[in-house]
Design goal:
Layout lengths: L2 E4 L2 E4 L10 H5 L2 E9 L2 E2 L2 H14 L8 H12 L6 E9 L17 E8 L14 E7 L14 H12 L4 E5 L5 E4 L3 E6 L2 E4 L10 H13 L4 E3 L4 H5 L3 E6 L3 E8 L2 E2 L7 H13 L4
Parallel strand pairs: 7-8, 7-14, 11-12
Antiparallel strand pairs: 1-2, 1-6, 3-4, 3-5, 5-6, 8-9, 10-11, 10-13, 13-14, 14-15
Helix pairs in contact: 5-7
Bound molecules: pyridoxal-5'-phosphate (PLP).
Amino acid sequence: MSKVYLNGAFVNTEEAKISPMDRGFLFGDGIYEVIPTYSGKPVGLKLHMQRMKNGLKEVSIDYPVDLNAWTDIIDKLVSQSSSESQGVYIHVSRGTDSKRYHAYPSNTAPTVFAYAFDTPPSQDSLSASIKGFHVTTGEDLRWQRCHIKSTSLLGNVMHFQQGQDAGVDEIILYNERNEITEAAACNVFIVKDGVIYTPPLDNHLLPGITRKITIDAISKYTDIGVKEAPISLDELLNADEVWITSSSKEIGPVLSVDGKLVNDGEPGEVWIKAQEAYNKYKFTC
Ligand SMILES: Cc1ncc(COP(=O)(O)O)c(C=O)c1O
């Protein structure tokens, strides 16, 4: 039976318990990360840990993130399984209070939970089994602090379900100016006339680690231009290629948007170069 990490100990999943007074349970008051690993090696670990530190600081949860300690915990969690590709979920909530009361309590110890789970194999542009995605679009109805990787994910969950109800894998969201923000659980890129575009970072989207690694890898290993610039819904619908990025998908080629095929329903040439660059770069950052 596999073990999870809870508050300093490795315990059987069934034996891991938290109080119903935990603020993570009552308010979604916490910060989380998902770190991809391949053959036990994490991708972008320092970047993920820095984002976790930033999020904890934003919401004033006093938890010192120790990179060395987390390197060991991640190693122990993934070594329990022989699966080639695993993600590690880390969740730090504000902890357990004696009552349900909105204000931050002053004396709770954070609840810290982590576990490993299998993820799809790494995207390989040379393989016959490239995973492509079908998406729909919808107005972004989440909160104004999407740059915080908060465990309060009901807005994202509802949008993701909107995609499931439409029979597709993901939903790409746009704001009141019809500009793309991100997807329910991914960042978004498009390709038009040989140039790659992705929305600039602000409080309406998560600063995705895969987004960053993708931009850095393309800049390092190719001469294709990448622009962080607003993308209109119309530009999305008329793009040569569309990609969604996340820790578990890497760079996911989108094959259709709202039922309309992108690049005749095939992963594009630029995607192949981008995913190759990503694979070369991913263990170096
Ligand atoms: C809303 C949202 N945007 C973007 C991403 C991609 O982030 P990352 O590349 O760090 O996994 C995620 C990942 O879970 C997400 O939930």
